[in-house]
């Protein structure tokens, strides 16, 4: 953190660090990098600040009955529940973490995002893929929730995960990369041909 001490990650703390001129670089690299998908990055940025209008937020504006989560129908629609805690998103997220070969023991928003913040966030293909996956997951979960709410459209976890994989593959395939073993591994894991430049 900005005072050099190690503290347990928390969104609120990170946000206040950011606005106090704290550890900006560490945070911004998770979200803002040249290979990102801008609309995904922007939504992740809002989500990290807990600015998405889930029902727990809307309720503060008036005394409404809380809406049930439209992904699992077994809990209330809230920011803490929706990402990574809901049974629907948990199943999806387990597939994402398996694909990334990452530890899936974090089951809440702060734990998951904290693990990504604490990972290497440089220019390697693995790092780029990891960050693309986090932002795409948050974006697509929010989109799925809104499609169910406003359009009455729903996808199974498997269809949803396929859409996620296609999104990541399309982005990775659009990038130019120098050859490395990690690039070959990424081609195998995602079953794609990457745009490898020589030299
Ligand atoms: Zn749910």
TrEMBL record:
<dbReference type="GO" id="GO:0003964">
    <property type="term" value="F:RNA-directed DNA polymerase activity"/>
</dbReference>
<protein>
    <submittedName>
        <fullName>Reverse transcriptase zinc-binding domain-containing protein</fullName>
    </submittedName>
</protein>
<dbReference type="InterPro" id="IPR026960">
    <property type="entry name" value="RVT-Znf"/>
</dbReference>
<dbReference type="Pfam" id="PF13966">
    <property type="entry name" value="zf-RVT"/>
</dbReference>
<keyword id="KW-0695">RNA-directed DNA polymerase</keyword>
<keyword id="KW-0548">Nucleotidyltransferase</keyword>
<feature type="domain" description="Reverse transcriptase zinc-binding">
    <location>
        <begin position="9"/>
        <end position="93"/>
    </location>
</feature>
<keyword id="KW-0808">Transferase</keyword>
